[in-house]
Specification:
Keywords: Membrane, Transmembrane, Transmembrane helix
Protein name: CbtA family protein
Distance between the termini: 20 Å
Shape: globular
Oligomer: single chain
Strand content: under 5%
Helix content: over 70%
InterPro entries: CbtA_put
């Protein structure tokens, strides 16, 4: 029997490495698109200034953090996020392990990671896909944050509804179990999407290709994090690997 402390430590360590690798992915695939978006914003601001639009002609304020500092901070942010997520994942695994109807711990870990990725990442992404930092109205940050967090909670509720419906329909066979889970999940998401407000602050002149390249890079970063977290934790709780280490020793 593994103690909660050992499971938590493993989750934190796996989360740390997953966060570092996710940060590397974001740096390689996402930062070039951020630089391009900032360049477009600066070009638009320079064009407006040259034509004398607006009453204020004061020099633009320098950003509090330089782009080099932001890029370095990217690794710190993803690492801290990975550590926190690894700890939360370990706690969730400990609390839900007996309720996950799988014979082996690695399968339970992979299933939990898949459910977390769908509920926490995919559902909010489909309703409110991320935009580059240079796109959007700063006055609506609070509204966008609240609606995103609400969508995240709804995503987790949708996953729960799908699992509950799947278990209820299991008495009617495997096909009914799968169909019940999918229908319950989709119905919850569709209703929520209809109720939640639509937010689209991307200017029509902003290149669509660049926008979606950034969005898919963001989704890829999250996928990298959850993939490594799921498989890493599955390996960490695999009893067969533990027995092999004991025999080798």
């Amino acid at each position: 029997m593994r103690t909660f402390g050992s499971l938590l430590v493993r989750g934190l360590i796996i989360g740390l490495f997953a966060g570092l690798l996710a940060g590397t992915f974001a740096y390689v695939t996402g930062e070039p698109h951020v630089d391009a978006a900032i360049a477009i914003e600066e070009a638009g601001a320079a064009h407006t200034h040259d034509h004398g639009d607006g009453a204020e002609t004061a020099a633009e304020e320098e950003p509090l953090v330089s782009r080099d500092g932001q890029k370095a901070g990217l690794f710190l942010a993803t690492t801290l996020y990975g550590i926190a997520l690894g700890g939360i994942f370990a706690v969730a695994f400990t609390l839900l392990r007996r309720k996950l109807r799988t014979e082996r711990d690695p399968y339970a870990a992979l299933g939990l990671a898949a459910a977390g990725f769908v509920g926490i990442v995919v559902v909010p992404f489909l309703k409110y896909p991320p935009n580059p930092p240079a796109v959007g109205d700063p006055d609506t940050i609070t509204r966008r944050t609240v609606t995103y967090l609400l969508t995240l909670v709804i995503g987790l509720l949708a996953v729960w509804a799908g699992v509950a419906a799947s278990r209820w329909a299991a008495r009617y066979g495997d096909v009914a179990r799968l169909a019940g889970g999918v229908v319950a999940f989709l119905v919850t998401i569709v209703i929520a999407y209809q109720i939640l407000p639509s937010i689209n602050e991307v200017p029509g002149s902003f290149p669509a290709t660049l926008l979606w390249q950034f969005r898919f890079a963001s989704l890829g970063t999250q996928a990298t994090l959850w993939l490594l977290l799921g498989f890493g934790y599955a390996a960490a709780v695999d009893h067969r690997l533990s027995r092999q280490k004991v025999v080798a020793a």
